[in-house]
Every structure is written in C-alpha cells, then in structure tokens.
Design goal:
The chain is mostly beta strands. It contains four helices and 15 strands. Helices cover 12% and strands 36% of the residues. The longest helix has 12 residues. The chain is globular and about 60 Å long. The two termini are 40 Å apart.
C-alpha cells in the first residue's frame, strides 16, 4: 500500500501534476480497496480511473482494446490473482480502456492523457493486474513488446542507446512523434521522431495562436530514428517568449502534433 500521507505518494503526484511526467502504476488493490480501507493514496483522479469493484480471483486472460495501442494483444495470465479491481474511465476525462478481462467482461487497464493545472500534458497507464504475470506467446506478443508500446507509442519516450538509422528500411519502426526533451525546457529542445521508410518530411514549431514561428526541417529523410533541435528562436533568430508551443511533423500523408512548454 502507498499511504496517502507518504512522501512517495506526494513525489509521484508532484512528478505528474507539476512536471508533466508520465506514470505507470499496477496493483490489484491500488484503485479500489486501498483508498477506501487502507489509507492508500487515491491515484484515481490522476489516472482518469473510476474503480467500481474490489474484484475476485477470476482473471485468466487479458485482452487489448481495438483502436488503441494494445489492439490485437491477447495474453494468458498466470500472475497474482487476488482481488483484481474493476476499472472504468472517468466520465468527462480523456482516459480510455486499454485492457479487459474478456472472460468476465470487466476492464483491468486504463490509459489517460490529461493536462495539469500548471498547463503541462501528462500521460498515465494504470493496471489492476501484474504485467509480469502475462505469458509470452508469439514473437510479437510478449511483455517486452507491450512495454515498448507503452513507453514509445503512448508515453512518447524514444528508445535509448539507438543511433539514427539511414539508407535502409527498418520494418520494426512506425511513424511516431515523441515528446520533446526536456519538457518544460529553458532553452534548447530536442524533438525526436521515427519514420518507417524514406519520405518527404516537414517539422515546424507553432505558437498558441497557430502561427508558424520556425521550420526545423523540410526535405526528404530516410527511414529510422531522427532528432532535430530547436533553440527557442523564430525564423529571424530572435528568441521567442515563454509559453506553450506546438510542434507538428508531416511525413507523406501522416501528421502528428505534440505540445511543449518553453520557459525563460
């Protein structure tokens, strides 16, 4: 149990709400039982979760949800299986179901994209089962592959230790625009992304009014991992003021936009 008055709970909440961090949390009692009966910290509002029941020992299979980054992922489950909390997305939030118990028809995984009162976007994933209890199946349906989806596709964190690939098609890559590093930033910002194949690309920075303040790249790039740097200046080399900015990647028919916070 993560106690409501513990420094660990406060640190986790502050990391998300005050610093725009991404947070993954799992546990059978974290969502329903602990906040009600064990003085556990109530993480539900941060994660966009409504816990509807304490649950029992009835989870044998976990299924991903169509239209999300877990689509097509179905695992047998052999992990801890006591009091698996039943979860629903909060009404009025941006949260959505990513895993269910298909044999009993209740939800066991919720992802959330939200903005804190300080204006920073954050993302969370909350599970009521042990990810380590999933049984690996075919080569593309493993715990490692699922973790990669959570970290890369949803949290937008690029793989570490990977050099930019060029001159060849890497079929393991998809079109992904990652979160800028760091965020918030006080000067230079790195914007990483990946491309599945060679294509024409544009990467631009926009202010909150929708005006393009800087074109970082326009041209053809090979498939692979790429990263471009923005120094916080406009096309004339003049520093732009503090505030929220959007960076937009266009690659062929694909488009993606993310947000960053620049501080001076």
């Amino acid at each position: 149990t993560i106690s409501a008055d513990s420094p660990e709970a406060e640190s986790l909440a502050s990391y998300v709400l005050n610093h725009g961090g991404n947070l993954y949390l799992e546990g059978g009692d974290v969502w329903y039982w602990d906040p009600l009966n064990e003085n556990g910290y109530n993480f539900n509002p941060i994660f966009g979760i409504t816990a509807t029941a304490d649950g029992t020992s009835d989870i044998q299979e976990v299924a991903g949800m169509d239209g999300t980054f877990t689509e097509g992922d179905t695992f047998n489950y052999s992990g801890e299986n006591n009091y698996i909390d039943h979860l629903e997305p909060d009404t009025g939030s941006n949260s959505f179901v990513i895993f269910s118990n298909p044999l009993i028809s209740y939800n066991v995984g919720i992802a959330n994209v939200d903005t804190s009162e300080s204006g920073l976007e954050y993302r969370t994933v909350g599970l009521s089962f042990e990810l380590g209890g999933l049984d690996d199946a075919e080569p593309q349906m493993t715990k490692l592959a699922l973790l990669s989806k959570i970290m890369s596709e949803f949290f937008g964190i690029p793989p570490t230790g990977v050099q930019e690939k060029s001159g060849r098609l890497d079929r393991s890559l998809s079109f992904l625009l990652y979160q800028s590093i760091p965020n918030p930033a006080r000067g230079t910002v790195s914007i990483p992304f990946s491309l599945p194949s060679k294509t024409r690309v544009s990467l631009k920075i926009y202010d909150i009014s929708g005006r393009c303040v800087k074109t970082l790249y326009s041209g053809v790039l090979e498939g692979g991992y790429h990263s471009f740097t923005w120094e916080g200046v406009d096309e004339r080399g003049i520093e732009v003021p503090s505030g929220v900015y959007f960076y937009r990647l266009e690659a062929g028919h694909r488009k993606a936009t993310r947000k960053l916070l620049l501080l001076r």
